[in-house]
Amino acid sequence: MKVKEVAELVGISVRTLHHYDSIGLLSPEKTTDAGYRIYSEQDLETLQQILFFKELGFPLKKIKEIIESPSFDREEALALHRQMLMDKREQLDQMISTIDKTIKHMKGETQMSNQERFKGFDFSHNPYEQEARELWGDKAVNDSNTKIEKMSKSEQKALGEKFDEIYKELAAIRHLAPDSEAAQKGIKVWFDYLNEIGHYSLDAFKGLGQMYVDDERFTKNIDQYGEGLAVFMRDAMAVFADQNK
C-alpha cells in the first residue's frame, strides 16, 4: 500500500507517516523506482502497535525503544495493551457514572456525598515520573513527591490552582522573545515555584523545558493554555538557566 492509502485506511495524516519514517520509527520495507513508499503487511502490524502505545500515552521516543528492543514480543505487547485499556475503561466508566450522579444531584433528584463527587479521578500515577527520574535522578522526584503527599487536600488543590495561574500568565506573554525582560521575569516565577515543591537545579530546569517539547503529552497539556506555549517555555527556561549559571 502507498502512503496515501495507508493514511486513509488508518485515519492519520500522510505527514504523520512521513514523520514516523524520518525518525526511524516506521520505515516502509520498499520504495518504488519513482520514490513512493510501499507499506507491507508487516509494516501495518508495526503501525498498529505504534498507535496502541501512542493511545496509551507513550512518547514516540519511548515507543521506538520498545519495539526495537531484541526482547520485544508483539503478542505480549498486545496483551499488555489490552489490560491497560481495560483499566482505562474501568476508570472512564467510573467517571461517567460520577457525571451522571452529579447531574442528578444538581437537579435535586438525588443526594451526593463528597466522596462520590470525586470517584473515578486518579492522580496517584504520574505518567511522566519515569522520564523525570531518568533525566534528573531520583532525589528531585522523591523530594517533590514526598512534599506533595504530605499536603492536605486543600493544599494540593491550591497547588494545582497556582500551576494554572502561572501557565495562564506565561501564555499571555508567549508572543514575546524568550530572552525579553518580561519573559524572563515570568519564567523565574515558574522556576521559583517549582523549587518550593522540589529541588530543581538550573540544568534540571532546562531539561524539563526541553521535555515540554520532546514529549507530546507535555506539549498537548501545556498548549491548551495557548498554542506555542510549550516551545516558548522551553526557550525561556533555557535562557534563564544559561544566564543564571
From TrEMBL:
<keyword id="KW-0010">Activator</keyword>
<dbReference type="GO" id="GO:0003700">
    <property type="term" value="F:DNA-binding transcription factor activity"/>
</dbReference>
<dbReference type="InterPro" id="IPR012925">
    <property type="entry name" value="TipAS_dom"/>
</dbReference>
<dbReference type="Pfam" id="PF07739">
    <property type="entry name" value="TipAS"/>
</dbReference>
<protein>
    <submittedName>
        <fullName>MerR family transcriptional regulator</fullName>
    </submittedName>
</protein>
<dbReference type="Pfam" id="PF13411">
    <property type="entry name" value="MerR_1"/>
</dbReference>
<dbReference type="InterPro" id="IPR009061">
    <property type="entry name" value="DNA-bd_dom_put_sf"/>
</dbReference>
<dbReference type="InterPro" id="IPR000551">
    <property type="entry name" value="MerR-type_HTH_dom"/>
</dbReference>
<dbReference type="InterPro" id="IPR047057">
    <property type="entry name" value="MerR_fam"/>
</dbReference>
<feature type="domain" description="HTH merR-type">
    <location>
        <begin position="1"/>
        <end position="69"/>
    </location>
</feature>
<dbReference type="GO" id="GO:0003677">
    <property type="term" value="F:DNA binding"/>
</dbReference>
<dbReference type="InterPro" id="IPR036244">
    <property type="entry name" value="TipA-like_antibiotic-bd"/>
</dbReference>
<keyword id="KW-0804">Transcription</keyword>
<keyword id="KW-0238">DNA-binding</keyword>
<keyword id="KW-0805">Transcription regulation</keyword>
